[in-house]
Amino acid sequence: MERRELLKMIAVLTGTAFVGGEVFLSGCKNASNIGGAVFTAEDIAFMDEVGETILPKTKSPGAKDAEVGKFMTVMINDCYDDADQKIFHEGLRKLDDASEKMNNTSFMKATPQQRHDLLVSLDKEAKEQRAAFDKEQAEKSKGVPAYKKEKMSPHYFTLLKQLTLLGFFTSKPGETEALRHKPIPGKYDGAFPYKKGDRAWAE
Q1: Confidence band (pLDDT; 50, 70, 90) for 191?
Q2: Is-contact 125 102, C-beta < 8 A?
Q3: How many helices (H) and strands (E) does the chain have?
Q4: Fewest CB atoms within 10 Å of the CB: 63, 80, 97, 113?
Q5: Which candidate, 48, 105, 41, places its Cα nearest to that of 72?
Q6: Any residues with CB less than 8 A from the CB of 162 and at least 6 apart, and which?
Q7: Contact assessment for residue 130 and residue 15, using Cβ atoms and an 8 Å cutoff
Q8: How far apart are CA 176 and CA 96, in angstroms?
Q9: How much is the pLDDT for 61?
Q10: What residue spans define the domains of the chain?
Q11: Phi, psi of 20 (to 5 degrees)
């Protein structure tokens, strides 16, 4: 699967454009030295568990198998601007606080079902926030050129979900075990047999 196609798919699943996508497609590494907070081993473990709740291991590998936590640190440091980095770092704390509020325990101590229910509620919150913003902008910005329209800051859970999906489907376990891996370059076959329900190819 090409990078652009994957980013489009993630945008559809999360209801908003992929944050940092332009930088990712150009090879990451912003021109400016971003800096920012340093991720700890605890942060990476936390992100792995969030990712695993989004994409749990079944017959196929899960997000932890793909080490999405480490992947996220690279993407945040190299492809996000200062504002989105701040949203992400603060979002880790907000997610843990939301777990305490909803389940009376931290995310790391919550049961798998409690984690699942929490993330479902955060996903709903993020999508409702996006829909409300889009509706408001549609009414306020009639006739305004797209480049002048106000842009919404992404919800922190949207960032976590996007990076989990991207990290998993560009990893070796994701490409070779969850998808069907086809090494490139390869021959063109316009009549390759397809059965309904076949998994997409990873290229």
Answers
A1: confident
A2: no
A3: 8, 2
A4: 113
A5: 48
A6: 10, 14, 18, 19
A7: yes
A8: 33
A9: 93
A10: 3-202
A11: 80, 10
The one-character DSSP state at 109 is G
Q: What is the structure's pLDDT at 137?
A: 83
- Structural element, H or E, at residue 167: helix 156-169
Q: Which amino acid is at 25?
A: L
* pLDDT digits 0-9 by tens, 136-150: 888 877 776 766 677
The Cα–Cα gap between 43 and 63 comes to 15
How many other CB atoms are found less than 10 A from the CB of residue 99? 21
User: How many residues in the chain?
Assistant: 203
Higher pLDDT: 34 or 163? It is 163
Closest CA to 130 of 13, 21, 7, 15: 15
Quick one: angle between helices 82-103 and 41-54, nearest 10?
Answer: 70
- What pLDDT is attached to residue 35? 33
| Residue 19 amino acid letter | V
pLDDT band at 162 (very low <50, low <70, confident <90, very high): very high
DSSP 3-state assignment of 195?
coil
Distance CA 117, CA 105 (A): 13
Find, among 161, 167, 153, 155, the residue nearest to 74 by Cα. Answer: 167
